[in-house]
Amino acid sequence: MAVTEQVSISPEARPGALAGIRVLDLSRILGGPLAGQILGDHGADVLKVEPPQGDDTRAWGPPFKDGVASYYYGLNRNKRIQFLDLSAPEGQRRVRELMARADVVIENFKTGTMEKWGIGYEQMRNELPHLIWCRVTGFGTDGPLGALPGYDAAIQAMAGLMSINGEATGDPLRVGLPVVDMVTGMNAVIGVLLALHERARSGQGQLVDAALYDSGLSLLHPHAANWFMNGQVPQRTGNAHPNIYPYDVVRTGGAPIFLAVGNDRQFALLCQHIGLPELAQDARFATAGQRSVHRDALKPLLEQAFAGDDGQQLADALMAIGVPAAPVLDVQQALTHPHTRHRQMVVQMEDGSHGLGAPVKLSRTPAGYRHAPLTQGSDFLD
């Protein structure tokens, strides 16, 4: 491991924004556990209940550390873990006790499972009216697809994401990370925070419904907006933006760079920098709309002008004059970048494990990293 930022996890660290909030995380795999981790990063006391065999993602490797996969480590810090068999009466009794002490429950069981055990939302809401219940599902619990199991890649396919991802002449392509699961986890956190805010007024909990299908559809901007307006089915455009140009990966004399020119001023600065100010006056390229229409003519002109440039140096020079541009880095290069260290986006826990830092920075109540993954716990903290 190269560049990292060591972050203290001492109990004397400043309490986070959610200090005092108790979260019972009954979820597995990704969306629910990510939500629990985010809440834990910001100070909530998160108690995660796993089945006796553990969360399935413990086996999702390699790589492994002490028999537990990195996948699990990336989603389960700032939690304390205990094992309960919720299908057994003793496990159900114990989880009822924990629910009574919790502010928030997160679960992503198949629809009807918790009801079968007598500990579902409708069965518990009258007994525990203060409880905020966050349910993460594939498609929701009703409707044409209600109660069906949902998986990130399947939702990417059904929500249209694969149809707009990939090269223009290629096949539909899955986004190379579980974007639907992750956004669903983030949306679950938004819902929990909204419900906590409302509970401060009413004293009442409520159900937070976070479905992968909804989250997948919510990612369709600007493709949905385009279709609503012109009725044309969006197509794949590779790395290029469907609405603006140059907003694309372009070749240089070295490594490729990504240009993200969003307005006429930036385009004029780009043309001036490469010694072709006349391009900004060319009727085909003078406005954002025309550049988008004539992108096939513009891209080779830019790549010809960049042919003698080093990609990294060119990107740095363009950024310095106000033209958005970036080198195309791999994961190692991104995680070891000096600015990644500066932003504390790689953190090290007390057990030596590393993870991504919290992306939201609060000035008075910053995120903290108190519990390494696999920390044991039998109850909420007093």
TrEMBL record:
Sorted UniProt keywords: Transferase
One of the Pfam families matching this protein, by short name: CoA_transf_3
Region (Disordered) location: 363-382
Gene3D superfamilies linked to this entry: Crotonobetainyl-coa:carnitine coa-transferase, domain 1, formyl-coa transferase, domain 3
Gene Ontology MF terms: CoA-transferase activity
Highest taxon in the source lineage: Bacteria
InterPro entries to which the protein is assigned, alphabetical: CoA-transferase_III_domain, CoA-Trfase_fam_III, CoA-Trfase_III_dom3_sf, CoA-Trfase_III_dom_1_sf
PANTHER family (alphabetical): SUCCINATE--HYDROXYMETHYLGLUTARATE COA-TRANSFERASE
Protein name: Carnitine dehydratase
Species: Melaminivora suipulveris
